Amino acid sequence: MAAKGIERGLTNYGDAGFSRFLRGAFMRQMGYDEQDLAKPIIGIFNTYSDLNPCHRGFKELAPAVRRGVTQAGGLPVELPTISLGETFLNPTSMLFRNLMAMDTEEMIRAHPLDAVVLMGGCDKTPPAQLMGAASAGVPAIYLAAGPMLTGDFEGQRLGACTDCRRLWGEYRGGRIDERELDGVQGQLMPTAGTCMVMGTASTMACMIEALGMMVPGGASAPAAFSDRLRCGVETGRAAVALAEKEIAPERIMTPQAFENAIRVLLAIGGSTNGVVHLTAMAGRLGIEIEQGIFDRLSEDTPMIVNLLPSGEHYMEDFHKAGGMRVVLHALKDKLHLDCLTVTGQTLGERLQEEFTHPAWQNVILPASAPLQEKGGLVVLRGNLCPDGAVLKRSAASPDLMSHKARAVVFDNLEDLALRIDADDLDVRAEDILVLRNAGPIGAPGMPESGSIPIPKKLAREGVKDMVRISDARMSGTAFGTIVLHISPEAALGGNLALVHSGDMIELNVPERRLELLVDEATLETRCQAWSKPEDATARGYLRLHLEQVQQAHLGCDLDFLRPPTHTRLA
Ligand code: FES
After folding, report:
1. Is the beta carbon of 267 within 6 A of some atom in ligand 1?
2. What is the pLDDT of residues 60-81, one digit of tens each?
3. Is 194 in the pocket of ligand 1 (CB under 6 A)?
4. Domain 377-553 falls in which CATH fold?
5. CATH architecture for residues 39-149+191-268+303-350
6. Is 137 helix (H, G, I), strand (E, B) or coil?
């Protein structure tokens, strides 16, 4: 029988009896006795950090989890790991997602833990923690921080960070002044919790509930609500049951469960980052998600959630409307219902209850009367993106879905910062803005710079959207006609590296095409003149990242951390 609890993975002194004795002595130092040590040990991975404001509520939430673990007969132990506060990391939090996944995996595996509760929430933390847990193979359950409540400024309801971007755009365009900008800055994030639109954090939380790795209702309860604390207690209790049944993540995160999560991503109008993260999470279990599946399922998955940035409401409204329970019921006939969840129930058993769609609200619509007939994301192909690119259709301008225009190219982020607001920039409203060298290797870390700002001189004229393309990502809270994740990226010599300002580019969303309209001979000549950028000074983790990171269509994981593929979702 495999060792459990305090007997698991003894420290190697060459004498197992001594290792057990010594470990027991140090546990006694913590005030535990044999009665405690006979219990299943539940690790609570608490990613509180003074530089991760989205996790501000963890000081109150972690004790709730401990209470649940204790109630169910487990021994709670709290551990730290790396925490990633989205706006505090340079050059971008995405560079460190895989580092956090490695930290999580190794700390789960190295410690005597029978199950773990993963407390996360801010954008990169949920995928990092679940990637690590998937690789470690120990029973795991996810607990999100929960979204913030909205703020108000002079009668205007505000939320992070769609309104941050919108109001900054208004300021750039001269439509609001310094006083108003200062006023809204204090109200955009009024409580603890994650961004309260359908950005990356909310998208990940909804997908993780659909995957079965979270207790029911865990995706949406606001951080400031008592619902969130009760969710913490329930999560603690569920973790003990998971440990007793020894249900490893691979039994829950199956190919069918990932397909359910993709359905939800499309139905909620979720973040494009969800594509990258879900692909990376599945990859840790030998499941390859081919990008075409997002497009295929998009065709018969209605978009039913009316939240910013694609719609008009916020996460607290989504929660009050019934949250993921309503979404899952609406999609029930499209989901794999035999998938196991962390509660020990299958998804089908969870949805067996009597249910009537709550007609009193317009935040989550029935599948029969959706916000849009088709899902929010499309995958593009063409000579600019032979391995794919992603566009969030639900947040784009309908009149730009078929658009042919000349390119205005920015060679990298520094070039963009230098020239985008220059009065002499040769740009017109109908042009296509191109940013390159902002991919997984190029930037490095594929920052969320794909929502290229509208050049100031056009913003002043009232231009709100343009076609923008890049090998970068974009914040889930952003909006516009923005093509992202171009693969292969420019730093690998993809055609994106060969575009010149003045070239014609065609975006054709109905036909799923993105083409650089330059003849092959010219491209070949430009290719001969191109050389791969190298960073000879890279050291430590950055060096590992540059040597190992995969392209966006594979999820940007480190190559050596992915096992061989056994199942393809296409
Ligand atoms: Fe943390 Fe948005 S910055 S979720």
Report:
1. no
2. 999 999 999 999 999 999 999 9
3. yes
4. Glucose Oxidase; domain 1 (3.50.30)
5. 3-Layer(aba) Sandwich (3.40)
6. coil
